[in-house]
Design brief:
Elements lengths: L2 H7 L7 E8 L12 E5 L9 E3 L2 E6 L1 E4 L13 E5 L4 H8 L7 E8 L6 E4 L2 E3 L1 E4 L10 H5 L9 E4 L2 H5 L6 E3 L13 E11 L3 E7 L61 H7 L23
Parallel strand pairs: 2-4
Antiparallel strand pairs: 1-2, 1-7, 3-4, 5-6, 6-14, 7-13, 8-9, 8-12, 10-11, 13-14
């Protein structure tokens, strides 16, 4: 959460909050070439147009979102997201991609006063122009433009200014916001579609889950052991390159005794073994959890 947002929510007149949703089907069963869906809960902005935030175009769509509140007690939230389905657009997408199970939903929030400047050109409100993609029509959103998997290849995104907007096709109409700030926002929330709960001709309801609230996930992801390092010796996480023969020492054996033959250099995987290889002031990359032992000194 940015400092501006913190200041605003503690003020007497913070302003109106805009809630935005981004649906990434490629996190589920859809290929990475499928564009992201971006919606905001409403119809249009003050100019009766779609809105632009962080360079991305969001379409107005009736959405009901509930159950996002976190509590220190009880289970992890499993929010519900209900989306209008009057045009049956989502029904077609659902049929193609396994009810969208596993798709990533990003919930974004900011104050309306910080929304982007944008240019209304060619029938769309856009924050910039994308060039250099190998696909057909250029992307209308910044993230899609810069994504190597969307529209053939990554392009170059150039933000509109008043002069470049008014020189665009149409001609373009420039909508300025003097306090636009795409860094002023609440922390993004990442959720995943766990199941389709309801599908009718009017709406579709999804049940969401947190990234760590899914079947088969174990926390912590590795067992907490006080005096045993799981890293591969001299591997990436370990980072040890060898003693180099300084003072005739080419390493240490499993009893932490110095050896003069590098072939006998074997790590005991203990905290002491790691200290021998990474003496102070070097950072110790020991992968175990010394604090988990009640008497760490006796288990060295």
């Amino acid at each position: 959460m940015s400092n501006k947002i913190t200041t605003d929510i503690n003020s007497l007149t913070p302003g109106s909050i805009v809630e935005l949703f981004e649906l990434d089907l490629s996190a589920g069963s859809a290929p990475s070439t499928v564009p992201k869906f971006r919606w905001f809960n409403g119809g249009y902005n003050a100019e009766l147009q779609e809105i632009v935030w962080q360079g991305n175009k969001y379409s107005g769509l009736p959405i009901e979102a509930s159950g996002f509140e976190f509590s220190a007690q009880g289970s992890i939230p499993r929010p519900n997201l209900t989306v209008a389905n009057i045009t049956s657009l989502l029904s077609g997408v659902i049929n193609d991609y396994n009810d969208l199970v596993g798709s990533k939903v990003t919930r974004k929030k900011t104050f309306a006063k910080y929304l982007d400047n944008y240019c209304y050109t060619d029938g769309y409100p856009v924050g910039g122009v994308c060039t250099g993609e190998s696909g057909s029509d250029p992307s209308l959103s910044k993230d899609d433009c810069l994504d190597t998997n969307k529209n053939g290849s990554a392009g170059t995104w150039t933000e509109y200014t008043q002069s470049t907007c008014e020189a665009a096709a149409g001609p373009g109409i420039w909508y300025a916001n003097a306090i636009a700030d795409d860094t002023a926002h609440f922390t993004d929330e990442i959720w995943y579609i766990d199941r389709k709960a309801v599908e009718t001709f009017t709406h579709i309801e999804f049940e969401l889950s947190a990234a760590y609230d899914v079947i088969g996930i174990k926390l912590p992801s590795r067992v907490i052991v006080s005096n045993s390092c799981p890293w591969l010796y001299k591997g990436v996480e370990c980072g040890y390159l060898g003693a180099g023969g300084a003072g005739g020492v080419y390493g240490w054996d499993t009893n932490n005794n110095p050896v003069s033959d590098v072939s006998k250099d074997v790590c005991a995987k203990t905290f002491t073994a790691c200290e021998l290889r990474f003496p102070e002031p070097l950072e110790n990359p020991f992968g175990g959890f010394p604090g988990a032992g009640r008497r760490m000194g006796s288990v060295r």
